[in-house]
Write a structure and sequence with these properties.
292 residues; alpha+beta; Aminopeptidase; 29% helix
Length: 292
């Protein structure tokens, strides 16, 4: 059997990458791969054996892209089950780390499955907080009454202010991700305002199996619940998933009241000083494991 070879991932690889995604039963679409390549094509990697794509891994750098406070993300570490035990996943992961560190990224993060966590711990990643995927079918629920809070669809003119609101919560500036997610499903987005100031927002994106809700960020659990209920109303009857920050004890009860149920856990992990942790206490749901 041929030894694996490694090279940059390109748009021409998307059909092969989707084959690996399907084997893993993940939820990404071709559009998600396009976004990842647009965010940082030089940091996306492919593994081949016998001329066939057998592995992928991606990185995303947020603003600031290097130096103090900078954050890079690793995602989409996939290996064909028939090509495992050749060190492909570990090699791809190390290529991602080397790429980000050579670019001057201060902290590297990823969301690990229970099976992957020991691999990352051997590379000095430290557990930060717990996440959990919940799923179900969206349904219309009675909206909670919130004094002085108004909900509205996110408009293109809101995006810059939304990124400015999000940055202290997430840590880095992830405006490129927010813009990409909003463009995918602008009609299934919502922003909360109190006296014209943003107090929360929620986005979503279409997946191959489920519509993924997230990120959901808010000033209070009550506003976060209202944002989620509004998105579920817009998605009524649609299979959905949401990746909750279950380190916040109020997130799971909200999802449960919305008729969702737990699917599987993740762990947010960090390599480096983590000087911009943000305010995770304001997060109901993350974006997705490949982007945090």
């Amino acid at each position: 059997m041929d030894a694996p070879t490694y090279r940059p991932l390109t748009a021409a690889d998307i059909p092969g990458a989707q084959r690996l995604r399907e084997l893993a039963q993940w939820n990404q679409t071709g559009r998600d791969w396009e976004n990842l390549l647009n965010f940082d094509a030089s940091g996306c990697f492919a593994a081949e054996m016998g001329g066939r794509l057998v592995g992928t891994a991606t990185t995303t750098r947020f603003t600031p892209r290097s130096g103090p406070g900078s954050l890079g993300w690793i995602g989409m570490v996939l290996v064909d089950p028939e090509s495992r035990r050749h060190g492909i996943g570990s090699t791809l992961l190390k290529k991602c780390i080397a790429h980000l560190q050579s670019a001057g990224v201060e902290t590297i993060k990823l969301d690990a499955t229970p099976m992957g966590r020991p691999v990352y711990e051997k590379l000095n990643f430290i557990a930060e907080y717990a996440l959990e995927r919940w799923q179900g079918t969206a349904r219309t629920l009675p909206p909670p009454w919130l004094h002085g809070v108004k909900l509205a669809p996110i408009a293109a003119s809101d995006l810059a202010a939304l990124a400015a609101y999000d940055t202290p919560v997430s840590g880095p500036n992830r405006s490129a991700v927010i813009d990409a997610f909003w463009k995918d499903a602008p009609e299934i987005s919502v922003v909360a305002r109190s006296e014209d100031a943003i107090t929360g927002y929620a986005l979503s994106r279409r997946g191959s199996k489920f519509h993924q809700i997230g990120p959901v960020v808010a000033e209070s659990p009550a506003i976060a619940e209202a944002l989620l209920i509004e998105l579920l109303r817009k998605l009524d009857g649609t299979p959905v998933i949401i990746d909750l920050l279950t380190a916040n004890p109020w997130t799971a009860p909200i999802a449960q009241c919305c008729g969702l149920h737990s699917q599987r856990p993740f762990m947010r992990m960090a390599l480096g000083p983590n000087t911009s942790p943000g305010r995770p206490e304001s997060i109901l749901a993350i974006c997705c494991p490949e982007l945090g």
